[in-house]
From TrEMBL:
It comes from Streptomyces umbrinus. The lineage of its organism: Bacteria, Bacillati, Actinomycetota, Actinomycetes, Kitasatosporales. InterPro entries: AAA_dom, DNA_Partitioning_ATPase, P-loop_NTPase. Residues 1-40 are annotated as: Disordered. CDD domains: ParAB_family (cd02042). It comes from the Bacteria. This is Chromosome partitioning protein. Residues 65-240 form the AAA domain. PANTHER family: P-LOOP CONTAINING NUCLEOSIDE TRIPHOSPHATE HYDROLASE, PARA FAMILY PROTEIN CT_582.
Length: 341
């Protein structure tokens, strides 16, 4: 059966013909429950499952986990991962703040947050010491999710920060002074290792590196890891790479599993069992100001981010993650590797 979860979405699919992501979906749904075998019934069922799962709740961390989503390469899935993981963690019952630290403001856009030039933003926090609480906005449609938006001003901040006191720790101070209770803060970094990224690395304890499953996936990561070491040595002794997430995994290619193996042998336990498939729905969602979790809750992309969020939440409280009990719509490597043999 060809499972076509996308029909459940609010939009009809503008791409005619077979969709690329369905190939990967089939392999990870080997044991469909004997319910409704029509594509529409199946899609509806998946959407309901996804939402049911979203509401199940997960252990909350003892204290706020500040995760820096970084990789100085552009286009590897930093922003996509930040907003969809944040939405997933919020749907699982957490209170989550996304800090948009990229002048492009893509995370703000994807969360449906207004970020034209006059909007109070993370620029004002970093440069003018405006309290974080004065720029944070609630994200429409997702309870418990908030965003500190980035405006285009932030492009100048990299230079303006240079002459300010405590230039590396301005974000950290702002976060320390923020009094709202939060379970997670996810910081979306720009594709560079300048002062904005350094501010994120000083503010957070955990680094989450999204790695795109393609050739040269590991190239350039040495530089990021050296920066993490430097910041740990001089400014933030708690900093460590806690999480690696494989993104844009294409289950039809051997390359994807080869890259995954390489990343796994390089990083080991930091790599999440769940990887994120390449999915048209994931890439469409931002243009509607939505995460894939609200845009198409039953899609493989939504399920994968929900599963990755679950894995992150369980790891945070020291509970082993059991990939065998992963949601059947989510992609984890075992099922994908089987699928390409
Ligand atoms: N799993 C995915 N499937 C399909 N497209 C994706 C996926 N993840 C990201 N993309 C697309 O890839 C592009 C780059 O992703 P983005 O998250 O903006 O990367 P970065 O923030 O690292 O520059 C965007 O157009 C995004 O929609
Ligand atoms: Mg980005």
């Amino acid at each position: 059966m060809r499972s076509d979860a996308n029909i459940a979405g609010p939009m009809t699919d503008p791409v005619p013909g077979p969709r690329t992501e369905s190939m990967g979906e089939d392999v990870s749904r080997e044991t469909p429950p004997p319910m409704d075998d029509t594509p529409i019934g199946r899609a509806a069922q998946l959407a309901v499952e996804a939402l049911g799962r979203a509401g199940e709740g997960l252990p909350r961390p003892d204290q706020t986990r500040v995760m820096v989503v970084a990789n100085q390469k552009g286009g590897v899935g930093k922003t996509t991962t930040t907003v969809n993981l944040a939405a997933s963690l919020a749907l699982h019952g957490g209170r989550v703040l996304v800090v948009d630290l990229d002048p492009q403001g893509n995370a703000s856009t994807a969360l449906g947050i207004d970020h034209h030039a006059e909007v109070p933003s993370i620029y004002d926090v970093l440069i003018d010491s405006k309290p974080l609480s004065e720029v944070v906005q609630p994200v429409p449609d997702v309870e418990g999710l908030f965003c500190a938006p980035a405006t285009i001003d932030l492009a100048g901040a990299e230079i303006e920060l240079v002459s300010l006191v405590a230039r590396e720790s301005r974000l950290e101070r702002a976060i320390q002074a923020y009094e709202q209770p939060l379970d997670y803060i996810l910081i979306d970094c720009p594709p560079s290792l300048g002062l904005l990224t350094v501010n994120a690395l000083v503010a957070g304890a955990e680094v989450l590196i999204p790695i795109q499953c393609e050739y040269y996936a590991l190239e350039g990561l040495g530089q990021l890891l050296r920066n993490v070491d430097l910041v740990r040595g001089h400014l933030n002794p708690n900093l460590h790479v806690s999480t690696i997430l494989l993104t844009m995994y294409d289950g039809r290619t051997r390359l994807a599993s080869q890259v995954a193996d390489e990343v796994r042998s390089h990083f080991g336990d930091e790599v999440l069992r769940t990887s994120i498939p390449r999915s048209v729905r994931i890439s469409e969602a931002p243009s509607y100001g939505q995460t894939v979790l609200t845009y198409d809750p039953g899609s493989s992309g939504a399920l994968s981010y929900l599963e990755a969020a679950r894995e992150i939440a369980l790891r945070g409280v020291g509970v082993a993650y059991d990939a065998q009990h992963a949601h059947m719509g989510a992609h984890n490597e075992q099922s994908m590797v089987e699928g390409i043999q």
